[in-house]
Amino acid sequence: MRRMIAGLTVLAALALLAGGSGAGTFAGIQDQEAALEGLDTSKPPLYSPSGRRDPFKDLLAGKEFKERAGAGEISELAIDDMVLKGIVKHRGKLTAILGGPQGFPLFVQTGTRFTDGYILSLTETQIVFRKVSERGMPLMRPKDIVKEIVAEER
Asked: CB 3.0–4.6 Å: which of 22, 81, 114, 121 could bond 128 by disulfide?
């Protein structure tokens, strides 16, 4: 009995919605078509910002962008997170192999920049980092951090 009453109520509600909105919808479409006939579509619409930023303006137009991390720069890694794995010499150039925080190897040379400093020098047994900032704040005096390869590991 309850199912039948609920079903009849739903059907009555649907009949009221369909009957009342059908004629109004058709009249609304005719009003919209009449309004569109009077519009001049040969010119694009103009936007008046009234002191606001134009949302349709291309913000990147006419500007050249350089990546934050340029050549020889690993900007998201800190010097304290680096572990020296080895130093190799290839065609007269020294390259250090560092282990990052996730353990992935990084191949770096003198001048490579990190978040808080850069590589100052590189020899066959050690690497010298110059730390110029700590937690985003510049240091008054840069610190030199030396990491060496232990003789047993060579």
From this structure: 121
